[in-house]
Amino acid sequence: MAALRTVTLSGPDDVAGWRDAARTLAAQGVAPGAVIWQTGESGDLFAAAPASIAIAEPSARLRVPRAFIDLAGAALLHRDPERFALLYAALCRLQAHPRLLDDEADPLIARIATMAKAVRRDIHKMRAFLRFRETHDDDGLRYIAWFEPEHHIVRANAGFFVDRFAAMRWSILTPELSLHWDGETVREGPGATRGDAPADDAIEAVWQTYYASIFNPARIKIGAMLKEMPKRYWKNMPETALVPSLIADAQARERRMIDTARTQRGGNAEAAWHALREEAAGCTRCPLYKNATQTVFGEGPTSAAMMLVGEQPGDQEDLAGRAFVGPAGQMLDRALADAGVDRAQAYVTNAVKHFKFERRGKRRIHSKPNAGEIEACRWWYEQERLVVKPQVTVALGATAARSVFGRPMTIGRERGAAHELPDGGTGWVTVHPSYLLRLPDKAKAAEEFERFVEDLRGAAALLRR
Amino acid sequence: MAQLDVRQKLEILADAAKYDASCASSGSIKRDSRGGKGIGSTDQGMGICHAYAPDGRCISLLKVLLTNSCIFDCHYCINRKSSNVRRARFTAREVVDLTIAFYKRNYIEGLFLSSGIIRSANYTMEQIVEVARSLREDHDFRGYIHLKTIPDADPALVEAAGRHADRVSINVELPTIGGLKRLAPEKNAGRIEGAMGAMTASIADHSDARRRYRAAPRFAPAGQSTQMIVGADAATDSDIVHRAATLYGRFDLKRVYYSAFSPIPDASAVLPLRRPPLMREHRLYQSDWLMRFYGFAPGDVAAAADETTGMLPLDIDPKLAWALRFRAAFPVDVNTAARERLLRVPGLGIKAVDAILSIRRWRRLRLDDVARLTVSIARLRPFIVAADWSPTALVDRQDLRPLVAPRPEQFELFAA
Predict the structure, then answer these.
(1) Which of A245, B92, B97, B225 has the most CB atoms at less than 10 Å from its CB?
(2) What is the pLDDT of residues A25-51, one digit of tens each?
(3) Does any CB of chain B come closer than 8 Å to the CB of residue A260?
(4) Domain A269-461 belongs in CATH node 2.40.10.240
């Protein structure tokens, strides 16, 4: 077995040194297990076995794909001490399998690719999160940054900052290395500490103002923020100190916005309702528009305290374009009159605004809307509620109840009781008047009509006087 | 009114600008500040996000309005004429100085400038162009500039904007014409699209000229984008997806941004109070991605939506929804299937698909290999065949969805 070789690189990011040594070792057929890789400040290559390797040896036989050079250039900057050995192992395997790099599922290549990715991300994050502070020195303005990278990327990143800030004088201080740009050349210096960088910059307060103002409190996505801006970077960024208070305050701010909007009656409710009705006339949110004559929108004063919600327009409503004008509508009118409710003071609408039917000969027979159709049409119902803002909403029948409460309800069990609605106001459930029309037994029909009137009376009693 | 200082103005005018979703600084040309007298660089690829706000959005550009005063009265807009917000106005000089000061400290990639309409479209556009001109000519600023152009402004001003800016944009505002009529009565869909069409033509002309004469001026090298508000009108996801596809096709847009309508202070009575779920916006971005990079036609995305409501499911992504609906397209054999079929597999991204294609030229892939290329092999498994794996009857199972859908709490945690 061959003796172990030790290679000492000039520093943790000595990519060129690794390349020269690896090329020579591979050309000599030295096995990956027989090399120990070290980094030191001496810059003394091959200190342990200087005689055994001559760099000048012809290395033209060694061919590696361009992609490997790029991959190695990034992965070698990783902080993992095994990086030099891993890449040397890959280089050796490449000699036997020139297409190895195409195999990202190979465990070694996958590991190196993950390292390269981490390094590239760190390079990117340094470009993103490094912050300069303005200072004055003898020659004028100088911008100084303190940054703590995760990997050995500082030297590799110098070009970016020169490209971007060519006309500025700047210094980047990091624990391992410092860079100084004077407008002409980059000078390297030893590592520094946070205390070497300026502690403040007056413009940071303005930047914090911007950060707090550009943030939308109506949307909080802390996970998304942390994924891209991990906490380890926060300590050197002036704006992140604001994050906890922004989050804490956000929900309260959104709540306030909604409450203000709810209590302040918009002066343009009437105009809003007309515009809404016009927009609804062209609705294609579900397929029911195809066979119906027209959209039957709700009607009534936009200041109504009571909203009555039915199922869907029937045959006559579809032709007339108005809600509750057919037989069920007449039944409703009678019951409202008995209950002492003025229909003209209520806003009357339907959960579904197009007539759904099946054709039997010449007749169009009512067909119950399905959950999808109710859901599609609920958008309009919600818009109507926003304009009218009723105190009490009466759902007539199961379809209406589903729309008003957003869940299936059993009418028999839940009728005649007040239910809190999530957007404010009170909900109330009863049967649909067409149910009364379908009862064959006269006595039963009379009894049910009385219950219906009683329910409507109960709903009316909820109104604030 | 007392004079506001720059910081107070910034507070008002950044707040007023935050409803614009775009903050991208991507897709421009490679440019640096060497040999110049100023600062700034851009790249062809992705821009840099210099910070993230707690709303999860990237902060890449200084995004402000020149003024939040406006002669229009669009209901969804906090800056509309009838709104009670505090008004402020920057001078061109103040915006230029702020941009340079922020840029020098590495806070931003550049400037995204928009404005309320004051006096007239032309007057407003002149002010916007002046900021960009001063940055480029007086300060030799080579960072990113995104200008919002005003549909009714003089073509010469729009031309000047394009010469200074990396990207220009005009918002279509709402996905349906009915919605635009109701919520932005002074705006006109025809004029907006006319301006976008003119912009497309200018970009194409200049890029033609560049091909022939190297000295020809550049014109909006990062192209044109637009934005629409989701949830303020009756458009379904299916409507929105078709609308976006039309816009991409007609105007050669770089991006369509979707902005979930969010409650604004001093809202108009015409608007929904409560925001639509942010997840809806997210699903639309995913659909957009599927159309731009995964070979999905708008009809494919629409087919993933609920047939009756036209809405994409919120609990699973549109690609998975499509796969669950069209199970006959699966399983896909990773060792033989064509690229476009692999791209349909939920859980296989473009990079993974390309890696698979490159590996299988040399050897057959096993399930372990695919696992190393992807995030969750458990969710992916039912949809593929590998050398040592076949999903047997999995694809036909009624209860496939719970096996492949993410657990609900994972996304609801931050979605609210």
Answers:
(1) B225
(2) 998 889 999 999 998 754 444 444 433
(3) yes
(4) no
Asked whether B313 and B301 are in contact (CB, 8 A), the reply is: no
CA distance A352 to A313: 8
Give the start-to-end residue ranges of the domains of chain B. Answer: 6-304, 318-415
pLDDT tens by residue, A88-112: 999 999 988 888 888 888 999 999 9
Point out the residue among A243, A383, A387 whose CB comes nearest to the CB of B54: A243
| CB-CB neighbors (< 8 A) of A243 in chain B | 54
Contacts A–B by Cβ distance under 8 A: 262
Per-residue pLDDT band at B113 (split at 50, 70, 90): very high
B222-264 confidence digits (pLDDT tens): 999 999 988 888 888 999 999 999 999 899 999 999 987 765 5
Domain ranges of chain A: 5-124, 130-196, 209-263, 269-461
Q: How many CA atoms lie within 13 A of A85 on its CB side?
A: 13
pTM to 2 decimals?
0.81
Tell me the per-residue pLDDT of B168-187, one tens digit each, with 9 for 90 and over.
999 888 888 888 888 888 88
* Cβ <8 Å between B105 and A380: no
The CATH fold of domain B6-304? TIM Barrel (3.20.20)
CA distance A103 to chain B (A): 5
